[in-house]
Predict the structure.
Amino acid sequence: MDTATILKRLKNLRKKWRTEQTRERKFQSGERLGYVPGALSLEKSVGIDIGYGMCSSELDRFIRELERATTPG
């Protein structure tokens, strides 16, 4: 597998995690306003949100390092 393919897959994974993070934030907004049933915990949602944020920021850093390593010059 070449570097371009790896970068593409990592960027798609980062996009997927950010989409899920946005979904969690929308859930949290609804929970605070009382629109979402109380079956799911707001605290759990905040934890998931933090996890997705940490993973996507780590991926950003890794992608930048890969791009620097593969850029000629």
